[in-house]
Write a structure and sequence with these properties.
Number of helices: 6
Number of domains: 1
Number of strands: 9
CATH class: Alpha Beta
Order of helices and strands: HHEHEHEEHEEEHEE
CATH architecture: 3-Layer(aba) Sandwich
Length: 214
Amino acid sequence: MKADSWLVDTSVSYDTVAASYADKMRGVLGDEPYIRAALALFADAVRGAGGGPVADVGCGPGHITAHLNSLGVDAFGIDLSPGMVEVARGDHPGVRFEVGSMTALDLDEASIAGALSFWSLIHIPDEAVPAVLAGFRRVLRSGAPLLIGFHVGDGSKLKTEGYGGHPMKVHVHRRRPARVGAWLREAGFTVEAEMLLDPEGSAPGAILFTRSSG
């Protein structure tokens, strides 16, 4: 895969499906009690660490960002796709959203009180993951929580058609929690808990509750 070409492909693909994906995601949290519980625990962890701004990195249409704000968290969204950011701003006008890449976060060192990456790290190739996690560690305050959600499994698949039947060109990487946990520890995080989602189903997932080490 050509260096950084996957970033362009990912951005263009999600621009293409932004409206259809947003339609699919509206109200989805109502059917996801475990994800709501994970977000509530994350909100408690942010407050317990002193509170402050929280970055939802790879926010998509902004439904998670908005939900965190409803829990009293000062959350803002960052997404690679300008189309997704436009949709997020339209759906959630009281919430801050900006275009940016998790590969080069435009945030000051130790400037945020928490971060989450929900099913967005899945598009980052293995060789780029350590640098992305190091970037998270740079912008997080010492002791701040980081919540990571991802598909569980092995190997990668090229997704060529997406939401609404629109064309896409994105790689989806499935990983084992142990592997993601090892990357996190190497980047300076402590893994505190692990939640498995639908472990016996066709699309298992996992959420890792981590904290930046002091």
